[in-house]
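Let's practice the habit of predicting before peeking. Look at the sequence and jot down your guess about where helices and strands might fall. Then scroll down.
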Amino acid sequence: RTVVEQSIMPAYPWLFETKEELNEDDVEVIVPDEFRKGVKGKIVASKEALHLVAYLQSLKQTPLPDGKPASDFLYQKKKQESDNAQSDQPSLLPDGNLLYVNNCQACHQANGEGLKGAFPPLKGSTVVLGDDLELFVNIIMLGYDARPEYATMNAVGLDNKLTPEEVTAIINHEKTSWGNNAKTVTLEEVNKIVEYINVTAKK
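Done guessing? Here is the structure:
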């Protein structure tokens, strides 16, 4: 009730003990005076209480995306030089890893393995490793609903107003992460596809 006044959750006093002095490995629970009910001393969580908390935290579901882009103040988009050795004038691309975290990771996870029965893995994906760039860009920009074993992917690119530079950075990050070792793409290649998508989407 220190958090939610109307809570009807019962108390579990046997999961805690009181001490005058704390040991080095004790975890003290700070309880406001109005909720102590006359209990003196320091309230310490028992091993059972700590194990229960650890178990409950392990059940926490991975946050699912709500289709809303992250607030600008939460993430500052960094610029870094492309390591594309084929170009005499490397283009400046945003941080692909940061863009992945902001736009893709909630579904496909930090390890690129997705969530079974919900979101497909990008690690070892034929789309990511393949050479069909038009398909890859279309999935990012317009979403995907061709695999019944997975949830429908929203139009991340259009919804979050991703630029060709950002799409290129995301694609190259996915092509070179989690053991993937695919050929990276250029901004020029991606820009042609994104421009066409943006034009047709307005019709």
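How did you do? The two ends are 54 Å apart (CA to CA).
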